[in-house]
Design a protein that fits this description.
Layout lengths: L3 E9 L4 E9 L4 E5 L6 H8 L7 E6 L2 E2 L4 H5 L2 E4 L11 H8 L8 H11 L12 H14 L4 E5 L7 H16 L3 E6 L2 H7 L2 E6 L2 E7 H8 L6 H13 L2
Helix pairs in contact: 4-5, 5-6
Length: 240
């Protein structure tokens, strides 16, 4: 069973709809959620976290329906929309001392482990951090309250190439620690570097939800890279 089960999601807006969105996220695997801007990635992620009212479908975490178990479930989910704007002039250590009070699942051992892994300095303030380090700080908070699933909306957007590669390396390390990482992106090279699985959405519909290797076998023409394949498929969808 997948650690996250998304089944038949429907959400209708005047100019856009999610249509029967279905996929799963596995433990200790990195899932890349790929699609062009406006394809439905952010709407799907909001639906996964019960941040919008659905017109149909369901979401389960750890085998339990989210709606009936939201408070307990969200203690074990980390969510990020990229970089964060914490109190810019407060020291990281002071911010953490406030945040830890909100979680009865807070684990100081995990906090110290990821603090060292991410190379963060508690005496620094957010305004002193690079954009990549701000993302790591956000992940630090999520992982310190025992998040087993990370759901990240465009976490590498706006980062320079070095910071992006560094963050993708962090995802690979988290995978080795048993964390499921689900991240949306329109940057195909991010998927090529670290994803085990691909969920591809186009115009509000899931085109594929499979392993990266199976995706390439099914959809790629001879000699095509993943980027070539995605560009071709998007072009075909536009002109369909």
């Amino acid at each position: 069973m997948s650690i996250v089960e998304v089944r038949s999601l429907v959400k209708n807006y005047p100019s856009f709809s999610l249509k029967d969105v279905t996929f799963g996220v596995e433990k200790s695997r990195i899932t890349g959620f790929i699609g062009r801007n406006g394809s439905g990635k952010t709407t799907t992620i909001k639906a996964m976290l019960n941040l919008i009212h659905l017109d149909g479908g369901s979401v389960s975490f750890f085998g339990m329906p989210l709606q009936e178990n939201e408070t307990e479930t969200k203690k074990h989910i980390g969510y990020s929309t990229g970089t964060v704007s914490w109190y810019p002039r407060k020291k990281i250590g002071d911010i953490v001392n406030v945040v830890r009070r909100f979680y009865d699942t807070w684990d100081d051992g995990a906090y110290r482990k990821y603090l060292a892994l991410f190379g963060l300095d508690e005496s620094k303030t957010p305004m002193e951090l690079s954009e990549g380090m701000k993302v790591k700080f956000n992940l630090l908070i999520a992982l310190s309250h025992k998040s087993e699933v990370l759901i990240l909306d465009e976490p590498t957007s706006g980062l320079d190439p070095f910071s992006r590669n560094e963050l993708l390396d962090v995802f690979l390390e988290l995978k080795r620690h048993g964390v499921a990482v689900f991240f949306s992106t329109h940057i195909i090279s991010d998927i090529e570097k670290c994803a085990d699985d691909i969920v591809y959405i186009s115009q509000g519909k899931i085109v594929a939800a499979t392993s990266k290797d199976d995706f390439m076998e099914e959809f790629s023409a001879p000699g095509e890279t993943l980027e070539d394949t995605m560009l071709r498929m998007e072009g075909e969808a536009i002109h369909a």
